[in-house]
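B., you asked whether I could sanity-check this one before it goes into the benchmark set. Here's the sequence:
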Amino acid sequence: MGCTTKTGIKNPNEHNGGNRTPWSVTLSLTLTHLLRIHPVFLGGINVGSGNKPPWTLPAKAKYGTYDSKRAVKYFGTEQLVTPDFFPILSVVPQRAMLVVKDRHPREVFENCFLDTWRCSFVTHVNIEKPEGLAKLLGAHFDENEVKEIMRLMTTKEYKDRLTQNTKDALEQGAFGAPWFKLTNAQGVVEPLFGSDRWAYMWDFLGVDFEDIKIVDKTKGKAKL
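And here's what the prediction gave me:
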């Protein structure tokens, strides 16, 4: 997807997103830069990079409950609850998202892509299963289009496309999601990982922003 910009950044910035974690879908929808989302297979990135999902380490899994609550509060998202069927094999819905991206306008793809997250962590629809994926797609398309998307996603073309996207991300150095490939106005390219690195991103892209700072509540008060 892309968001038009008034910042003078000439090149699109790319985001490789999987829908297997809440963090990977805390996307930059509020950014005023041109952004392209490339669906990838997060499991393939983990294997290819030697990384492991955070919940497979007990200490990280325990800590993750705190981070999830903090993210919901900070970003103002709906309450996130990990479903019983988590994790899913995201290769299935990600192929479907590639089809949607090819066949429909940016805004439609964007909304559909975000619903992969909502289904996984809010409404608890297992989109790895055909019936679950059909339910997600049915919220955006008519019955005939749902059938066509689900047909196309099983073809060699889209299987190969997802594999190539995943390989491209690995070649960039990706080890998880969200993974960004940033290009600033000078044509300099750098990678960035994480859903909470906006200050780093904006600084690199030359965007004016107000940084986080502690409010001085002592101003105006008499000191003894």
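One thing to flag: The chain has a mean pLDDT of 85. Otherwise nothing jumped out at me.
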